[in-house]
Write the structure tokens for this entry.
Amino acid sequence: SKVLTTFITDYGRFCFKRLPFGISSAPEHYQKRVNQALEGLSGVINHTDDILVWGSTIEEHDERFRAVLRRLAEKGFTLNRDKCAFGVKEVEFLGHRITSEGVFPDLKKIKAIVSMPPPSDVSRVRSFVDMVIYLGRFIPGLATELKPLFDLLKTESEFQWGDEQERAFCRVKEILTTAPMLAHFDKSRATVVSADSSSYGLGAVLRQVGDDGNLHPIAYASRTLSKSEKGYAQIEKEALAMVWACERFEYFILGLPIKVETDHKPLLSIMKSKNVDELSPRLQRIRMRMMRYTYEIFHTPGKELIAADTLSRNPLPETGTGEFDVEVDAQVSLIVQNIPVSDFKLNEIFEAQMSDHICSEVRKYCSTGCPSKEKLEGALKPYHQYRDEIAVADGLVMKGIQLIIPQCMQIEILQKIHTGHLGITKCRSRAKESVSWPGISTQIQQLVDKFPEIARLECQTASCVINYCKSIFARHGIPKEVRSDNGPQFEPLKTIAFQDFARDYGFRHITSSPIYPQSNGFIEAMVKVVKSGMKKNADTAKLLLEYRATPLANGYSPAELLMSRKLRTTLPTAHSNLQPKVVSKEGLNSTEEIRRDNQKRNYDRHHGARKQEELQPGEVVWITDKRTWGPFVQSSSPGFTRR
């Protein structure tokens, strides 16, 4: 850029040959060049033109120092001997006094603060507070002493320096003169991050195990909650404190195994064993942000988590809009996107929640904390056991990913759950995916038990079955196998239409054992369910939609198994529930095998079944039939393959 900075004088036109003072980007360019020059060297760090070289022994120090000198000479750097200090055990660097024992605040900076006169206006108060906050990592609970000064910085406050402010001003000066030492960070030592939250702030402490076996502080941190964060559920605040603490100390802990300490016991299962898709949108986001750290979370009673708890209750104010504020805005935006606001039902539920007394109280407890069960009124007591799962997302009260339905809408939602008339278990599974309220399981049982089971026979011709199969194949593709019973539509002795169809389309046709419907039990049960549903529901398309969206015994709905996603139905649900998710075939096959084995074992025990030898083609067998009595010959014909 020297061409762009050319200047004209009485003696002609000139341009810079070296980077001059006064260029706004000069510090960044200089820092980059020094970083490049020292790249790859051990035991050296720099900030602009301040270079610090260290070693655990004199020999190691000297070796590293010679390497730095050689590298600087190669890159054309010149050192000012008068500004160099060699072989010292204590050094002042970036406002800190670094010794072999640990890190202290710079005495010169403390002296400058101690010698400051009482502020005469808000700007001078802010300057004093900013200088003290710079040293806040050394002093736990510093914000407690600064509170009278913080009050003066509020926009609605009138500047008035009184006795309370004077005492705080003098007390802070006294504390700074006795600031404790912070230990050096050692990546080989066990590291613990303690985090805690209060209704208005977050606090964190980074500690390591020392030679004496005790935990020694490395750094302290605290901050206030934003307006939107104050509305979080308590468990979300605790999770936020944990991820904020890890991100605040990321320079130290990233890539290292650490322990995270919290006094909120429900957080353990949420961050360790609970499935991500079962969490509220905010907790999902926090859980994903924690995935880049190698951590083990454990519980410590609040009375033992003193430092982090104190910092959270006396947080330092945020100065300006930092990177974390941008992250919070992005997180809130993500939550809004996870709820499909275009769905008119969600707006209706929101309005019903706002007008419902119970939902309003639950919403209030999300931000203020839930009292003990004894202090709750009768209708609110059932929510106490879910207090750590309930949160407010985009104005909607939710239990995890389930919408909490107010009383005025519960009957309507129950009717939608039971649209397909699919039985108690399946209706409960459907409800569990999207909605919740106390007693929903019992209400579903009472509703479903009112409907009898009815069956009705439909079309039986081969051409009807073939045409329907063709429409299925056109949507989903041709299967490898088609299984059926031994109805007249499929018997090759009565009609060859279905056999020709199987040959033309290239699939294998397998029939169940003759006169033994149990061998095709799944299809028989399915036919019974569909017939029963069609009898109760004139809308066949909606019946199919509800069945395909209802979880089976393996936990997945037919739509998830076929299309790797859930279907949107008349029940309101979070948008995140409809995102594609591939089903693990290994886990599914294992679950199905266990379920089938248990089912077979129960059936055999109930009916006294005995294991028999495998029949061979041509072997004479006897079977019971209402119309006739054997003997019969086991055929090897492909059309009668037994399964």
About this structure: Residues 395 and 641 are 59 Å apart (CA to CA). Residues 462-607 form a domain with the Nucleotidyltransferase; domain 5 fold (CATH 3.30.420.10).
